[in-house]
Write a structure and sequence with these properties.
One of its GO terms (molecular function) is mRNA 3'-UTR binding. The protein is α+β, with helices and mostly antiparallel strands. Helices cover about 40% and strands about 20% of the residues. It has helices at about 75-145, 160-170, and strands at about 5-10, 15-20, 30, 45-55, 60-65. A 5-stranded antiparallel beta sheet has the order 3-2-1-4-5, with no helix packed on it. About 15% of the residues are buried.
Length: about 200
């Protein structure tokens, strides 16, 4: 036999309360497990239809509850079930998407920084190389104006280490590098490590 009543007391933290029946004066204990599995949490003042049983402690306990104030059509139950399930089931997917986006942004940032650094180092290297080529070209041009291949071949005919280097590098048949190490006149003109 079914009875009707109103939820008069409810402890949401502990999951139980009491129903005040429409006919009768004694409140009936109700546990959260007696409520339908879908829908909102129980609330005080809610109209209920229920059966009851006598528990081991000889107290009446409500069972097979129906919430009369709530819509219980199959469509509504399914919608409520989907609504309660979707945030839980989509949470891991959302976390994965956020994590993937985060790591993708870090990867793109790192790649951008690496590309900029590599490009900068390349540009600096090219500029240094061009500057070195320009300075060597300028020295060679200046030396070619100061020195000219005129048939001299020996260290004794040179006036400076710089002149000896010019003749060794640019003139035919120089006889100034006896040990073939690229440094001419090591015993007299180009003896110092700092010689030009």
């Amino acid at each position: 036999m079914r009875f009707e009543g109103t939820l008069s007391k409810w402890n949401d933290d502990r999951g139980f309360g009491f129903i005040k029946p429409k006919h009768g004066d004694q409140d009936i204990f109700v546990h959260i497990s007696a409520f339908p599995k879908v829908g909102t949490r129980p609330r005080i003042g809610e109209n209920l239809s229920f059966e009851f049983q006598v528990g081991q402690d000889r107290k009446r306990e409500a069972k097979n509850l129906k919430c009369l104030d709530r819509s219980t059509t199959k469509f509504d139950r399914q919608r409520l079930t989907n609504r309660t399930k979707s945030p839980v089931s989509s949470k891991p997917l959302l976390n994965r998407i956020v994590s993937l986006a985060f790591f993708t942004m870090i990867g793109l940032f790192a790649y951008d920084q690496f590309s900029r650094r590599a490009s900068f180092e390349h540009d600096v290297g090219v500029a240094e190389s061009e500057n070195e080529d320009v300075s060597q070209s300028a020295v060679a041009t200046a030396n070619s104006r100061r020195f000219q291949c005129d048939g001299r071949q020996h260290c004794s005919q040179m006036t400076s280490c710089e002149e000896a280097k010019y003749f060794l590098k640019n003139c035919p048949n120089p006889k100034m590098d006896g040990d073939y190490d690229g440094i001419p006149c090591e015993q007299n003109l180009c003896t110092s490590v700092f010689s030009n």
